[in-house]
Amino acid sequence: MPLSPRMRWRFDQLRKKFAGVSGGQNEQPRPKLCPACRTLVGAGATRCHQCGASMTFSMAAASRSLGRLFPATSPATYAILTLSCLIYAVTLALTIRSSGFGGLSGGLFNFGAIGGEVLQRVGASLPWPVDLVQPWRLVAAVFLHGSLLHIFFNMWVLMDIGPQIEELYGSARYLFIYVVAGIGGYVVSSAFWHFSVGGSGALLGLIGVLLAMTVGRRTAGMQMLRGQLIRLLVYIGIWGLLFPGIDNWAHAGGLATGFILGKLMADRPPATPEEQKLAYALGWAAALVIVASFAMVALGILRHG
Length: 305
Known about the structure:
The protein is 64% helix and 1% strand. It is mainly alpha-helical. The chain has a single domain, classed as Rhomboid-like fold (Up-down Bundle), CATH 1.20.1540.10. It has a two-stranded antiparallel ribbon with strand order 1-2. Helix 9 packs antiparallel against helix 10. The relative contact order is 0.11.
């Protein structure tokens, strides 16, 4: 039965709509958003005309995708917090498995204590030259903690000062600063033959960055901040002298490393496409070093049981 002209017209309209949806010839190419700077670029462009980022893959786009797993503000700080807590939970479970519930007994300072053998297997910083032969320990030790009180105080300080520094320098450079300052702290600690774990060297590095920012600036706000930082460092130094087991050399090494990084880096988020590329490269380098370090730890555990 032949179709009426009106029905044929309707079928033609439906065919055109379905052809557009399925990618037919009637579909017109649309402009795309740059994954790095979110600038609108042409449909056939392979690189962004604004920042030069690749339209198929870039570290900026990968960083944005990974950042969706964490809060919109301070994603690197929350990533450090999450990784540190996960590693602590794993080491506590290993301690309980090897020595019963000894890790959950003892006084306030020893509650949730991690066994020394477990810390050594999972990446504690060891006296020189062991860290030279096994350099992943300089990174893994930053995320290890010896007890519940230890990780509580370190993560408290991290959440107190970390978000402000991350906002100031950008997440990528902030992660780089944290990791490099932690490494610097354990290089000094290992040189003085210490067995050590904890993120306090990296945290002192963050304080060192802030201190470097205030040097040479005479505004009232900067002078006030510098005075507060110096008082905080005095308190930390006294605490380290009064209580045994605190690695003052790691603190000193992290503080010095952070201060140097603070003098080398501009104390503001990356402003130009070139600065953004460099920042993302530094952030991804730090992240890959963390992953590689714990991969070496896992390989060692599997090899030796």
